[in-house]
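Justification of resources, computational component.

The compute hours requested in this renewal are based largely on the per-chain cost of generating structure records like the one below. Each record pairs the submitted sequence with a full structure-token output. That output is archived, and it is also reused by downstream analysis tasks.
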Amino acid sequence: MSGAPPIGSLYGVVFDCPDPAALAEFYRGVLGGVLDPDDDDWVDLVLPGGGLRIGFQLVPEYVPPVWPGTEGAQQMHLDIAVGDLNAAEEHLLELGARLVDMQATFRVYLDPVGHPFCTVH
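The structure output for this chain reads:
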């Protein structure tokens, strides 16, 4: 299969959440980009460069993932490259992230509704 052409290209990733507009605004503060709301149930964040999108989908019965989780379904997370872990941490905490783990080359946070993400250096 190594010589086969790809089936497609990544268009975006989607987060379930209780308030799509609020969570989209949080990630716009983290990553930049432009908000593209569809309705009250869906907001896209079009990342700088205009390609990749992060979608935020309303789930009224939203339950945040458990991190670190040892039971249940596997989860995904974003790794966000930063130039300075300390400077990024200060800004992320101001935006509403919560620091949950700190290592030499990365830090783990939870966004305002509990999705884990990491900053890496």
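The longest strand covers residues 12-17. The domain at 76-121 is CATH 3.10.180.10 (2,3-Dihydroxybiphenyl 1,2-Dioxygenase; domain 1).
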